[in-house]
Amino acid sequence: MSTTISRPDIKNWIETMPEGDFHYKDIMGLRPILTPELDTALRRIVYDFSHGDNQICESTGKGDGRYRRIDNLPEPEDWQNTDATKDFPIVLPFDLRKYAWIDPETHIIITGSKDSGKTGYIMRAVGMNMNIINTVFLTNMEGGRNQLKRRFDAMNINIPNPPPFKTWFKTDNFHDYMKEPDTFYAIDYIDVPESGEFYMIAPAIARIQAKLQKLGNCVAMIGLQKKMNSDIAYGGEQTLKKASLYIAMNPGKLKIVSAKIHADPKINPKNMQWTFIYSDEGTNFLNITPCYEEE
After folding, report:
1. Range of 26's domain?
2. Number of folded domains that form the chain
3. What is the DSSP string of 82-95?
4. CA-CA 20 to 30 A from 119: which of 78, 137, 231, 290?
């Protein structure tokens, strides 16, 4: 392998790398062969590319030697030719589309305490939309395929074999499996980091949201965990700010915390609540009833 470092090759590597950050030593797989002299030369080249008028990368501020590629400036958005009267044709359990308008390239948050029905709500959304929209289900269900099958089988929804939606088990970096435009992505769920670093949840949501905008005409429903009787997920207010619809679930109760755009301009659905009975199998909601109790 050559012991020289080509500035054009390094520039091309940075400009064509996938999304995300990188350590300068990993450029072109050079880390295993870096001598002190090569390391100094490589670091100087990357420093040059991250400064001046023609930057192609910048320091992430996460630690010494980590950078991110700077995106090229795209064509301006042609927003005037967008059909703003067209929503995303998703169907929601509890008939919540009566109250919330869902634009394409947005996300819905379903946050729930333990045994609240969060997973059941997301799975029912999969079943209700599988014949309407291209649907992808990304799950980290603890019981694996057995539990997944039992819960889908327990629905009063006929799911053919093979199912008209795709399922993958995924525990993190869900945006890696988001490849198709014109798709409903159901994600159950972004887990709380074992380290308790709740601030990592909002960036995970942001990566999903960025992927929706890149793909076009997609919506994601994202499951999050929360404390009992709290309206906001672990991760705090940052999980709330960009959601088109934000739902909080406790055992036997569902609440609309926020709907960014109202389906009926005359009706603000904020704080609307419903009680329900949750089936043992965890995918059916029975006796759904509006609740006007003040919290």
Report:
1. 7-69
2. 2
3. S-TT-------GGG
4. 290
